[in-house]
Amino acid sequence: MENVTIRMLAERLQLSTATISKALNNSHEISEETKQRVLALAAELNYVPNPYASSLRKKASNTIAVVIPEVADSFFAEAINGIESVAQEKGYHVLIYLTHESFQKEQAILRDFQSGRVDGVLISVTTETAAAQHGLEQLVKEIPIVFFDRVCEEITAAKITTDDATAAYKATTHLIAGGCRQPVMLSASRHLSISNKRTEGFRQALADHQLPFTAASIIYCSNDTIATHELLKKAIQKEHYDGIIATTEKLATAVYEAAAALHLQIPHDLQVIGFSNLSTAKFLNPSLTTITQPAFDMGKAAAALLFKALKSSSFALPEQQEVIPSTLLIRNSTLAAAD
Amino acid sequence: MENVTIRMLAERLQLSTATISKALNNSHEISEETKQRVLALAAELNYVPNPYASSLRKKASNTIAVVIPEVADSFFAEAINGIESVAQEKGYHVLIYLTHESFQKEQAILRDFQSGRVDGVLISVTTETAAAQHGLEQLVKEIPIVFFDRVCEEITAAKITTDDATAAYKATTHLIAGGCRQPVMLSASRHLSISNKRTEGFRQALADHQLPFTAASIIYCSNDTIATHELLKKAIQKEHYDGIIATTEKLATAVYEAAAALHLQIPHDLQVIGFSNLSTAKFLNPSLTTITQPAFDMGKAAAALLFKALKSSSFALPEQQEVIPSTLLIRNSTLAAAD
DNA sequence: CCGTGTTACTTAATCGGTTAAGTAAATAAA
DNA sequence: TTTATTTACTTAACCGATTAAGTAACACGG
């Protein structure tokens, strides 16, 4: 059986395709009676409109893109959840693209969006992304786009972030309160504003407690699990760190792995705080003190902002910013009590 | 600036749109020289073809849909990873739809696919889905579709599964070898073939070890976290289970939660095995013995199968089946040693 | 009774590509 | 030299919906 089209409905009912289209879109130009007849036949024949014909004509796809580094990170998984919940409610479709932290892939993906494939974009950039070289600047002007979590500092655009500097400051203070004198921060990128802000909060907390900030205070880790494991083991042995702030979920578990390999007891030999949304954090051995980001809400907020812009073109999207606070959840991988 | 179209290229080069189209598609009808001129101008003007125009005419969207219950489950997160890796390689786009275990949502989503929005579908059905009522039977005939993990037994269609019965049998045997005499299986559905197969493996293992299979041997849990928690606590207290097989990731952590609430020691009071892909399983307290499903590979296999069908229409997709084995990873939440 | 609106449609152009069918010129074969 | 074939294009239809513009029929106020 062929696909049912508007033309088929028109022929059956001896009406023009224009009438059918308008009837289906509940236009005031069409009589109640005709609308009923059209709707009835459409239901009977199981008519489903071709979205691409409609998109082509209307220049709107009812589709948004989500561009993220990976899904297997509970922050992004939860964020997708938030995004999808809003999109589904608004009748939008969600295309998903994984960059795997590759700036090249990210660029290729974004370039494609100039085709009009999507009405808007939600993006969390790769660790390699530095806004300068990027066509991002250009794209922001051409298509509604909302950055979330990993944003580009240099670009004027809509952004949903969490309070990274404050969170890092709190985490660091918490480590110090637990007796830590040699804290280190594991960072995933030198370029990302999110990383720099966390570094800033970390540095500030060290300064406020008269602890030195040196070259050894930050370790930049790659996305390569094995390399990171080796790097961590060597660094911990050499520098005798007594506290670690892991700024990504993967890095947090990497620390547990390294500690196990070096026979170090968490938290007595080494305190650990992770930026993580793992629902299993409290069941880890020992349970992991976390900076928990409001992933679901950030996803929702980003999507909501985007849809607001899509609805009214007069809405000045690029000026919107929102910061949703993270929470320090104190568990057994650190020593200080809650205050 | 307006979007660049094929017509604009045509006017600039004093050629017909047909020539431009063919040149861009590297048709043999076009001279090398003209192709170069077209490509050069396209690059210069940053031409990106409108996918919807092309989809409309070619009746192919270069897009697939992934329909799953949720993303915040590491099985599905990894599966998406596998799917996306294949899709990206083949130049396909991936639409994602979350059913949140709602059969109604699932139906609405699938119905939309009759519009031609996607060239193929990868689906893992909801816990509520029973094939019979479903329009699934119909859809399978109309559009290439591959079921993965949670399949519909009654439907003849392409399926990628893991060895659920065998895995459950192994898990049960392992519990029994550790001294368990009152094992219980936590199931997420009465309808799903995946659940029934696991039940079957469980039942068989009990029978082979002269243990009774009663109404209390299986607990059906809903998707409601709080209700599940209460249900679990009560059941464990009442029936004095000494071993639990949690058939979903969420249920595994729910068991840890319930055990903590009841002050039960895992594994001494209660052994636990989870069907789970959590990368943190080995860091849990105690580390969790898991049946680990090959999530990434199942995603890849499902996508590969789908693309094979999309490439050649003569390929008999509905007859394809593949079973990829799961692995029992023995850790500290159970007592028996590896054999 | 005439002009003005309103109602309920139809006609035809349009979105931006793709492709079957046609054509003119050049080349090869007979 | 004539016919057949190949090359490199063009023309125009088409995919399926949307929408600006047009129209016929009827109602209504003055």
UniProtKB/TrEMBL annotation, chains A, B:
SUPFAM superfamilies: lambda repressor-like DNA-binding domains, Periplasmic binding protein-like I. Keywords: DNA-binding, Transcription, Transcription regulation. Residues 4-58 form the HTH lacI-type domain. The keyword Lipid biosynthesis does not apply. PROSITE patterns: HTH_LACI_2. SMART domains: HTH_LACI (SM00354). GO terms for molecular function: DNA binding. The keyword DNA-binding applies. Coiled coil: none annotated. InterPro entries: HTH_LacI, Lambda_DNA-bd_dom_sf, Peripla_BP/Lac1_sug-bd_dom, Peripla_BP_I. This is LacI family DNA-binding transcriptional regulator.
